[in-house]
Amino acid sequence: MSPCWKRRRRHALLAGLLAAMCGVANASQTDYLPPWNPPPTGGVSFAMPPFDAIADLHGDIVDPQLTVFFAGNQFMVVHDLIEVFKQRYPAYQRVFVETLPPGILAKQIETGSLVMGNLRIALKPDIFTAGKGSIAASQKQHGWFADTVDYARNPLAILVAKGNPKHVEGLKDLGRDDVRVSMPNPQWEGIAKQIEASYRKAGGDALDHTVMDEKVKAGTTYLTRIHHRESPLRVLQGESDAAPVWSTEAYFQQQILHRPVETVAIPADQNVTATYTAARMKDAPHTQAAKDFLAFMASPEAQAIYRKYGFQPPQP
């Protein structure tokens, strides 16, 4: 074997090894990408994250018998919830669900459509869910809703990488220069207001200003650009060190998906607990389906699914 051939062989082996290592790294990062729900069965599967992978549109978009606009933090519940609803109400088999930030869903209702890439969706919702305060504000401003039901509660938590390498012990640590924070965008994420209230409880206006102004300008606080789904993903991919999230999002990543993350609890005196409300639209295209779904949300079956994913029951 000539020396030249040996060198070529070594180079080929090294190149192959490098390609394999890159492939493993890319695969591991791709494994974290949404969607994080089981896909529908049947049909041609055409998705390779991050390409053509639609995470927050669920079910049947053509001639749905029920359309639900869900607050985006409940994406993990949708698969189980809708399957059980279909079993209990077999008349409804074509159900379409969106799990986007409530501020975006409200704009979609106001404008009449949502544009996602090259797709335009002009479906009217039968049910709209959001935080209790947001529902009350929308009702006062627009008078959209016929009736409502509270169905779950959720406190805040801090999501960090496994091992908590930055030793984040509480909200005050998010003000440190060396801690990169992923923060929901206050422009359309209702959770942002809740987190800022917790900042003020933990460290006054100074902590809120540090995290939301100074660190944003310095580039050490990242404001989500489209959805608070970004925050867990940034922690998983090492782009952020800590992310204030709903406790159920941390629970889902750690306990359901078994991802390499940990949860830092926020004390009750610094925490904020949201109540979620489902509202039936006055102009719902499917009035009876909307009534049935609203009743279902308070049923033992639906409540058991919410408990499975870490949500707390509504206050009586």
Automatic annotation (TrEMBL):
Keyword annotations from UniProtKB, A to Z: Signal
Keyword Transferase: no
One of the GO biological process terms: molybdate ion transport
Signal is among the record's keywords: yes
MF terms (GO), sorted A to Z: molybdate ion binding
Signal peptide span: 1-27
Protein name from the UniProt record: ABC transporter substrate-binding protein
Organism from which the protein derives: Dyella monticola
Native organism taxonomy: Bacteria, Pseudomonadati, Pseudomonadota, Gammaproteobacteria, Lysobacterales
